[in-house]
């Protein structure tokens, strides 16, 4: 016997249904905070498929830049991910699912072929990965979130593991969006700059932050150690690029624009 709840997750009265219900409850409890939700989602997915590690990745498909973090703190993680992207640029080993539906390495390569690839030798093996599955969330036209779940064992994922991922994914998508909205609503306009894809240079972002915090052009110049004229030039460029005319309009523009995502601690940026 199955039933459906408000978050799009079908559950049943058996042991598997109980595990899914517990997983959903954990996700609901974490949906008030974006970073807490990401961490909880990783832990929930690990439990559902009996995995050893996870990775969170924010992917910008316009330039294939990725913000990612690994379950464990590894000094070599950035280098490993840079190598992964170098290899993926040469040949796509697994393309994933456009819909974000769960998939695993074995959907694309059999084990002997996988273990002969440079990606396995140079990246997966050092991370002690022999099995991997991925759940994707498309949160904007050009932005996606992937949760990777990995096992050290070479034993295949049981069919029930990917079924668990398939069943929980609709709720994961909805609650991920809720965590983003909840966190975004609490941020100041200055903090929202970090979560928006805007046509501003790094220096212009610095100037914009100071402006929406209430600083004048002269105060902004002093805080950044630049001349008053340079400060005014930056302000004019910011207003032109964002189609606003004053600090109030700038703050309103930042508040009204939805984010693609928010920063998550421990992430490294890789790719182009």
Tags for this entry?
single chain; 272 residues; alpha+beta; 6-stranded antiparallel sheet; two-stranded antiparallel sheet; 11 helices; 8 strands; 49% helix
The termini sit apart by: 49 Å
| Average pLDDT number | 87
Tell the overall outline: elongated
Cα-based radius of gyration, to the nearest Å: 22 Å
Poorly predicted segments: none
Classify the oligomer.
Answer: single chain
Task: Trace the largest sheet across and list its strands.
Answer: 5-6-7-3-4-8
Structural class: alpha+beta
Helix content: 40-55%
The arrangement of helices and strands along the chain is EEHHEEHEHHEEHHHHHHE
Number of helices: 11
Total count of strands: 8
* Beta fraction: 15-25%
For the biggest sheet, the summary is: 6 strands, antiparallel
Structure description:
The protein is of the alpha+beta class. The protein contains eleven helices and eight strands. It has helices at residues 15-30, 34-49, 77-90, 111-115, 118-124, 159-186, 189-192, 202-212, 217-224, 228-242, 247-256; strands at 2-4, 10-12, 53-60, 65-70, 103-104, 131-140, 143-151, 268-270. It has a six-stranded antiparallel sheet, sandwiched between helices. A hairpin with a 2-residue loop joins strand 6 and strand 7. The longest helix has 28 residues, at 159-186. The radius of gyration is 22 Å and the shape is elongated. The model has no long low-confidence stretch (mean pLDDT 87).
């Amino acid at each position: 016997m199955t039933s459906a709840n408000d978050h799009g997750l079908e559950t049943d009265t058996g042991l598997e249904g109980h595990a899914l219900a517990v997983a959903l409850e954990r996700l609901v409890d974490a949906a008030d905070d974006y970073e807490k939700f990401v961490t909880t989602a990783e832990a929930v997915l690990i439990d559902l498929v009996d995995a050893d590690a996870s990775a969170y990745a924010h992917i910008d498909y316009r330039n294939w830049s990725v913000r990612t973090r690994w379950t464990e703190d590894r000094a070599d993680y950035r280098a490993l991910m840079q190598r992964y992207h170098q290899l993926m640029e040469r040949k796509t080993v697994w393309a994933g699912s456009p819909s974000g539906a769960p998939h695993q390495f074995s959907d694309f390569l059999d084990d002997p072929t996988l273990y002969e690839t440079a990606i396995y030798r140079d990246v997966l093996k050092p991370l002690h990965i022999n099995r991997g599955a991925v759940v994707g969330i498309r949160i904007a036209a050009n932005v996606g979130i992937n949760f990777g779940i990995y096992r050290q064992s070479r034993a295949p994922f049981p069919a029930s593991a990917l079924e668990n991922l398939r069943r929980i994914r609709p709720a994961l998508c909805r609650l991920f969006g809720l965590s983003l909205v909840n966190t975004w609503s609490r941020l100041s306009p200055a903090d929202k700059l970090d979560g928006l894809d805007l046509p501003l240079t790094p220096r212009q972002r610095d100037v914009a932050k100071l402006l929406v915090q209430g600083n004048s052009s002269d105060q902004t110049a002093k805080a950044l150690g630049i001349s008053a004229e340079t400060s005014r030039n930056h302000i004019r460029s910011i207003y032109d690029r964002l189609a606003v005319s004053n600090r109030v309009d700038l703050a309103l523009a930042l508040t009204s624009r939805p984010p693609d995502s928010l920063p998550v601690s421990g992430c490294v940026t890789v790719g182009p």
